[in-house]
Amino acid sequence: MSGGRILSRKTRPEEMTVETNDRKNILLVDDHQPFRDSLAKILSGEGWQIFGAKDGEEGLEILRREIIHLILTDLKMPKMDGVELLKVAKTIRSEVEVILITGYGTVDTAVTAMKDGAFDYIQKPFKPREILKLVRKALEKQTLVLENRMLQEKIKDFQRPDKIIGRSPAMKRVLEIVAQVAPSSATVLIQGESGTGKEVIAQAIHDLSPRANRPFIKVSCAALPETLLEAELFGYERGAFTGATARKEGRFELADGGTLFLDEIGEVSPTMQVKLLRVLQVGEFERLGGTKTIRADVRLVAATNMNLLEAVDRKAFREDLYSRLNVITLSLPPLREREEDIPLLAHHFLEIFQKKNNKEIQGIAPESLNIMLQYRWPRNVRQLENALERAVVLARGKMVVPGDLPPEILKTVQGPAAEGAAILDDKVISIPLGTPLEVIEKQVIEETLKYSRGDKNVASKILGISSRTIYRKIEGEKGEEGKDGAEDQKDELS
Ligand SMILES: Nc1ncnc2c1ncn2[C@@H]1O[C@H](COP(=O)(O)OP(=O)(O)OP(=O)(O)O)[C@@H](O)[C@H]1O
Ligand SMILES: [Mg+2]
Question: How far apart are CA 190 and CA 325, in angstroms?
């Protein structure tokens, strides 16, 4: 059906479709019916829908019921005058525009009404083209106001806490740049350690762009061997290679009008780098085994957890491709550099996994948060997400306690004590000097067990010894000897 289709559709920012109704509704309020009728005739000739009202009250009733973009109202009317109507109307629909129609001698009142938010006034008698010009201007402004409000809503929506968490200065900066670059079609390169949220940001750039209602297509460059990646990106014609039994459109074509997200771009082979460079330079490509040149209007967002510049220095990544990708670079800070976000993200994930697992947990114990704040999170937000999922599943009590955290986190949060132990510095026990070591040991173990509510696995993680050792030490048991005993030995020595 789409054989050799030339894709030339362009989506420029100025073509941005906004969900404003093209059909504009105008409310005419005037107590003089013949005047209302003749004005309605002039305006409806332009394709606008006209609602008539004989006084302010009737007008407000219509305003509450219909989506009115503009009100044309007489200034002097019985019951409620035009200025009063203007004020009430603005409280019902703040973005509605109002044009006042004045007779001889009321111009001053109309001028004052501009301060109350009237768009303009027109003095009777007027010519049809004069009123049409004014109405057009008012409606244009109205559209702009609506568009702007929708954009603001979109930005607010994307900053809503359940979408992208980031109140640290570093993340705030990132989000500012995202909002700034999203409306253009400029290529964006997102750099950041694994799990810092590169994909989340790529999606946000798309969602905030005029391309939002076109496809967001993701390709993971590392997941596919070179030839498959090429077929995936550019598509192929029937018979292009063994197994190509039918034509297939590539991801570049599928993303036409939208955004193509090239994940792990640093992993792309030298040959593919050349091919990508060409698409970026000329915006054209051919399907594998095809001869037709295909154009696709695609906004490119690439991501990598590699230092691409260093890869360029090593000659592992082409410099020309790098500079094409590097039009705008976003560097996502590692989680350990945005401490403020750790508690926010932790609670965010707690909520998500509580719902998912149908479990009720009240919160995260301060000791647990302390450990999270000290930990270095080498795999960043994703690791925190996984830690919270695990904690929710394991948690026995109403709070996430340190014992619910993954052992690697407990282990590496180091303090002055033995390696492998977690320091819970707000849990302190005092032991008089001169207490025999054996008794001290027993007491520490007992206190830890109290803390872990008797869970020996948790206690053993906190203490950095095996649960069997705990047993032996407090029960005074010998424990089983043999190979297991040898393992215990190792625990104690380390
Ligand atoms: N700021 C954030 N707010 C909420 N969730 C986030 C945020 N950043 C990341 N996440 C979540 O963390 C996980 C990892 O994010 P994402 O997949 O975007 O990271 P990445 O940098 O692409 O990782 P990788 O390098 O491993 O591909 C996802 O589940 C994502 O939803
Ligand atoms: Mg990713």
Answer: 10
pLDDT tens readout for residues 99-156: 999 987 778 888 888 888 899 999 988 999 999 999 999 999 888 877 777 766 666 6
Ligand number nearest to the C-alpha of 344: 1
Range with the poorest average pLDDT among 2-11, 38-47, 255-264, 368-377? 2-11
Nearest-ligand number for the alpha carbon of 159 = 1
Burial class (CB in 10 A: 0-12, 13-18, 19+), 171: buried
Per-residue confidence (pLDDT) for residue 264, from 0 to 100: 95
pLDDT at 22: 60
Q: pLDDT of 441-489, one tens digit each?
A: 888 888 888 777 777 777 887 787 888 888 888 776 444 444 444 444 4
Q: What residues have a C-beta under 5 A from ligand 2, the ion?
A: 198-199
Residue matched to tokens 């089983």: 480
| Cα 283-296-232 angle, rounded to 5 deg | 95
How many whole angstroms from its chain centre is CA 157?
Answer: 8
Ligand 1, from 174, 200, 350: best to mutate by most atoms within 8 Å of Cβ? Answer: 200
Candidates 381, 384, 386: which one to mutate for ligand 1, based on the most atoms within 8 Å of Cβ? Answer: 381
Residue 277: which of 325, 315, 312 has the closest Cα?
325
3-state secondary structure of 215: coil
Write out residues with Cβ below 6 Å of ligand 1.
164-166, 192, 194-200, 305, 381-382, 385
Q: How confident is residue 308, by pLDDT bands cut at 50, 70 and 90?
A: very high
Instruction: Give nearest CA residue, ligand 1 atom 6.
Output: 197
Residue 102 Cα, ligand 2 centroid: separation in angstroms?
63
**CA of 192 relative to ligand 2 center, distance in Å:** 10
CA distance 453 to 451: 5
Q: Which protein residue has the closest C-alpha to ligand 1 atom 31?
A: 200
Q: pTM of this prediction? A: 0.59
Kindly state the average pLDDT of the residues 289-309.
92
Residues 158-170, mean pLDDT to the nearest whole number: 75
Q: Give the Cα-Cα-Cα angle 257, 262, 267 (nearest 5 degrees).
A: 160
Ligand 2 center from residue 73 Cα (angstroms): 57
Ligand 1 centroid distance, CA of 381 (Å):
6
The secondary structure of 230-267 as a DSSP string is HHHHHEE-TTSSTT--S-EE-HHHHTTTSEEEEETGGG
